Amino acid sequence: MKNVLLVFIGGGFGSVLRYILSRWLNNAENGIPYGTFAANIIGSLLIGIILGLALKHNTLTQNHTLLLATGFCGGFTTFSTFAYENQVFLKAGDFTSFAIYTVASFVVGFLAVFLGIFMVK
To answer: Which of 59, 90, 112, 118 gives the lowest tally of CB atoms within 10 Å of its CB?
Structure first.
């Protein structure tokens, strides 16, 4: 039960922070979802740092990892919103934005995870 509570608390904080970031960065005029992109990239970097620290230094307990990686990063990042925003681009026939957003999200997201792990080495 303690593990579920840690994930719940971390996920709640992550979700609220993602909401604030999206309200601040998403642009209603041109529909570019900068907030979601930023949350996914920052979350990828954070999970790389968190799991890198957990593996390298053994400084994080399983509880820390559940709270921060599974909970916070899981709540902060969002694949469902990413998928929905891409559906909006496709429905509008905006194939250029769809391609740039999708490729940039995957490439920069992976690079952010690797950077996070590299930073703690």
So the answer is: 59
Q: What is the DSSP code (8-state) at residue 73?
A: I
Give the pTM: 0.86
Range of the structural domain that residue 65 is part of: 2-119
Number of domains the chain is built from = 1
Quick: pLDDT tens for 85-120. Answer: 999 999 999 999 999 999 999 999 999 999 999 999
Is the C-alpha dihedral spanning 35, 41, 42, 47 positive or negative?
positive
| Integer Cα distance of 65 and 42 in angstroms | 17
pLDDT of residue 56: 83
Classified as helix, coil or strand, 93 is coil
